[in-house]
C-alpha cells in the first residue's frame, strides 16, 4: 500500500520565471521509475487539505518541477513560499504504465509545456543507465525563457536529439507531422489535454502503432 510520507525540502532552484524545482529528503523512499509521479498534500492550520499530483523529474531522489498557477491551491505555495527545511506530505511513487525502463528500442518523447518533467526523468535515466537507445525529444513551449532544463537540454548528448518549437515567438510554430518521425520508436507524449490529443492524432496519421503510444495529460 502506498502511504503518505513526510518530505523535507532540502534544496530549490528557479527553473523559469514561473516554475521552481524542489528537491526533497524523504525517509524510507522506495525508489521509482522514470515517468511516475507523486501526490502532494498540504494541510492548513484549520485542517483544510489540498492535494495535487506532480511528476518526478529524476531517477534518483525526489525532485519535482512545479509551475505556479495563479488560481492554484497547491502550486503557488510550493513555488513562492515553501522554504528549505519546511515539510510537506507526499505519497508515491504512483503509476506503472507511463514509464520507461532502460532498453535498446528507439524512443520518441513529445512534450508540451510542463509536460517535459516526466520525459526529462526518462532522458536522465537513459544517461544514468548508459543506455544506447536513440532518443528524440520534441518540446513545444511558449517562449525560450519558459523552457524547463534549458541548459541541460542545450548540452550535446550522444544519441539524443532535441527540437524546440515556440508557440509565442516568431516564427510561431505548432507541432506538425513534419516534426515527428514515422513508425518505429516507442512514444511518450505528455502535456495539456488538447496538446496530447492533437499529437496522438498526428502520430496515428503517420502510421504509428497505437499500442506503442503512451500518453499522460493534465488540465481540462
Automatic annotation (TrEMBL):
Segments forming domain FAD-binding FR-type: 2-100
Stretches assigned to coiled coil: none
SUPFAM superfamilies referenced in this protein's UniProt entry, alphabetically: Ferredoxin reductase-like, C-terminal NADP-linked domain (SSF52343), Riboflavin synthase domain-like (SSF63380)
UniProt keyword list: 2Fe-2S, Iron, Iron-sulfur, Metal-binding
Record-linked InterPro entries: Cbr1-like_FAD-bd_dom, FAD-bd_FR_type, FNR_nucleotide-bd, MRET, OxRdtase_FAD/NAD-bd, Riboflavin_synthase-like_b-brl
Pfam families for this protein: FAD_binding_6 (PF00970), NAD_binding_1 (PF00175)
UniProt protein name: Ferredoxin reductase
Species annotation: Nonomuraea mangrovi
